[in-house]
Amino acid sequence: MALLESRAPADPLVLFKRWYREAERRGALQPDAIALATADASCIPSVRMVLHKGIRDGRFLFYTNYESRKGRDLAANNRAAIVFYWSVTRHQVRVSGRVSRLSRAASAAYFHSRPRGAQLSALASRQSRVVSSRGELEKAVAELDRRYPKTVPLPSDWGGYALRPDWIEFWENREDRLHDRLRYVRRREGGWRLERLAP
Ligand SMILES: Cc1cc2nc3c(=O)[nH]c(=O)nc-3n(C[C@H](O)[C@H](O)[C@H](O)COP(=O)(O)O)c2cc1C
CB of 173 closer than 6 A to ligand 1? Predict the structure, then answer.
């Protein structure tokens, strides 16, 4: 369906949720996979995939290691951008804004909802550091498995981030590459300004 200003909801998250559900319904393989772009204090960019873990209070959530490369980037520069692309619907959604850490309680709640193996791996992995071998990682996981037979503690350097959008752009594939692009820009006084961009 064509992306028309006249039909666009006032709240971009309504459109986002509609597109996300449509991608799921049409069988997108990993609709929650997003590219996350960060930049360090010298403005050197870096991009990698992470998993989108929902929206809370209008913010996009993801979880990672705070001492990873992305974690260090975000500590130095809290501006970030994410992009979704669902090939089944040929929709792209770009989100840009500032990132803040989730509370320790919120991070713990998510951490403990993950499978035990994933919790142990997160605890064993000093993400983005050089390791001597895979064996070293597997040994660390086995040791932690013995040390914590019941609950795996939330690692001190692991948790969630929330990205508060300054703008969200919806892109829809159209014939002859005359694609639709609608961008919602957050207004200082509240609400969103909607504008169309050339493809
Ligand atoms: C589809 C996909 C999903 C991923 N999800 C996450 C994630 O949610 N959190 C995470 O820390 N890493 C995730 N990764 C691994 C990251 O891409 C990356 O290797 C890791 O976070 C280290 O990145 P950094 O060194 O830039 O910090 C995912 C990778 C792929 C391919």
Answer: no
Q: Is the CB of 62 under 6 A from ligand 1?
A: yes
SS3 139: helix
| Residue 28: other Cβ atoms inside 10 A | 19
Q: C-alpha dihedral over 166, 80, 24, 102, to 10 degrees? A: -90
CA distance linking residue 147 with residue 141, whole number of Å: 10
Instruction: Tell how far the Cα of 69 is from the centroid of ligand 1, in angstroms.
Output: 10
pLDDT tops 80 at residue 72:
yes
pTM higher than the cut 0.85: yes
Planar angle of CA 56, 60, 128, nearest 5 degrees: 125
Distance CA 171, CA 85 (A): 9
Q: Which tens digit of pLDDT belongs to each residue from 49-67? A: 999 999 999 999 999 999 9
Identify the bridge partners of residue 195 per DSSP, sorted by sequence position.
183
C-alpha span between 60 and 52 (Å, rounded): 7
Q: Is 70 in the pocket of ligand 1 (CB under 6 A)?
A: yes
